[in-house]
Automatic annotation (TrEMBL):
This is ABC transporter. InterPro entries: ABC_tran_C, ABC_transporter-like_ATP-bd, ABCF_ATPase, P-loop_NTPase, Val-tRNA_synth_C_sf. Residues 18-106 form the ABC transporter domain. Residues 192-257 form the ABC transporter Uup C-terminal domain. Residues 200-251 form a coiled coil. Keywords: ATP-binding, Coiled coil, Nucleotide-binding. GO terms for molecular function: ATP binding; ATP hydrolysis activity; DNA binding. It comes from the Bacteria. The gene is yjjK_2.
Length: 262
């Protein structure tokens, strides 16, 4: 999504108005001989608040804990934490509408994280973060994407909402697996009946259609990043698709096992 890694399969569709800023987990090399204020001015002279209010570079520096008396200080005189904070500020001065954060809590001090959390709450665009810091996620996240069993799922709510959903999903999978096992044990005949062959073909089509639609929904949710109502609507549609998809996959697996007995 950052545009840096081209070694992947699939397609990335980006809207024409999307402007991405990427906060890397690895350290970014800064020009050591440049002054702080000039480092930011290379990117922009002013920034805009969510409500359209203009904010000067000096105001932003002060907001990010750099007193006015230090704005002429050269980068090499800053501590490692201060350089990281300055780098983050430059990304924000870039005026992105999509902000990618890769493990931001690893290197930022507590004060900077507090400022970042406040900024995210007033940010007018979309923030996508990868983090193992549950406290940070609970402070800033409105929805979660989880990857497991080769699938991506999106949950709107808190981390606790996800845990509850995951428990119910695991329970349903366990029940379906047990039902499938019982069905296979009882089944004695070999091969599929005519009715089962039709069902098998219908399941294949439905599974393929669901996979295509879920990919479309993922793209639409990114494009509708500022429209919470639309995202909620798309997420609900995807959740229903995923429930039916799991049921179809389970039934397809049962029929596939019977089919292999021929």
């Amino acid at each position: 999504m950052s545009g840096e890694d081209q070694q992947f399969e699939g397609k990335l569709k980006t809207g024409q108005t999307v402007k991405v800023a990427y906060f890397k987990q690895t350290d970014e090399t800064l020009d050591r001989d440049i002054r702080m204020i000039d480092y930011l001015r290379e990117e922009n002279e002013i920034a805009k608040e969510k409500d359209g209010t203009s904010v000067s570079i000096t105001q932003l520096l002060e907001r990010f804990l750099f007193p006015s008396a230090t704005h002429g200080k050269k980068v090499y005189k800053l501590s490692g934490g201060e350089q990281k904070r300055l780098y983050l500020l430059r990304l924000l001065v870039h005026q992105p509408n999509v902000l990618l954060l890769d493990e931001p809590t690893n290197d930022l001090d507590t004060e900077t994280l507090t400022i970042l959390e406040d900024y995210i709450h007033t940010f007018g665009g979309t923030v996508i973060t990868v983090s193992h810091d549950r406290y940070f996620l609970n402070k800033v996240a409105q929805s979660y994407w989880f990857i497991h069993d080769g699938q991506m799922e999106k949950i709107i709510g808190t981390f606790e909402d996800y845990e509850s959903y995951k428990k119910s999903l695991d329970k349903n999978k366990s029940t379906l697996k047990q039902q499938s096992k019982s069905s296979t044990t009882v089944r004695k005949k070999n091969g599929l009946s005519y009715k089962e062959k039709l069902e098998y073909e219908q399941l294949m089509k439905r599974i393929e259609q669901a996979e295509v639609r879920m990919e479309e929904i993922d793209v639409l949710m990114i494009e509708a990043s500022a429209d919470y109502g639309k995202i909620k609507e798309l997420n609900e549609e995807k959740e229903q698709l995923e429930i039916q998809y799991d049921l179809d996959i389970t039934r397809w697996s049962e029929l596939e096992e019977i089919k292999e007995q021929q």
